[in-house]
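Researcher: Batch entry, complex prediction.
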Amino acid sequence: EPEVTQTPSHQVTQMGQEVILRCVPISNHLYFYWYRQILGQKVEFLVSFYNNEISEKSEIFDDQFSVERPDGSNFTLKIRSTKLEDSAMYFCASRQATNEKLFFGSGTQLSVL
Amino acid sequence: RKEVEQDPGPFNVPEGATVAFNCTYSNSASQSFFWYRQDCRKEPKLLMSVYSSGNEDGRFTAQLNRASQYISLLIRDSKLSDSATYLCVVMGQGGKLIFGQGTELSVKP
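Model: Structure tokens for the complex:
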């Protein structure tokens, strides 16, 4: 089965630093998403991306967050100035169409110290 | 009211038991429903979609009651390998998935 690839699997950073989480969605997919899961809590939607622009974002996705698809294969999530509460598992996901199965990557565990 | 609400759990059951998970959702306009499984610190994995007519996949049966905005998952003859967190998921606008808190299942020998 095709896979969504995320790197790194773990990222440790100091509060206030910028981080970029990277994802390679499945090659023929058109819809891209970021979700996060704080330890012990539910999986939360952050942002969806289609046709090179954000189609929807949650309240969590404030000005500190941005997404980019710089080269047609990578899909990145940038957090400009990390806070302690940004510590979570971040999952990238992609799908070919909105009524098709959503494929998740294995996640990046972000720890902000 | 939470968008997707599940039994709090955890459920601790012996091997071979039948276990049922319940879920309610708040948006009556929702059209697509799923059960996902999540193992500890791993990504959610699709277990099955849920259809109005109910659907079965081996030991797993999912039911949807639109009038009550209620979704269920039944696992028969539970195995040790069924131990995981089960996530009730509703599709929102634009294809985003809205997850419930999850119910942890532990199957003991």
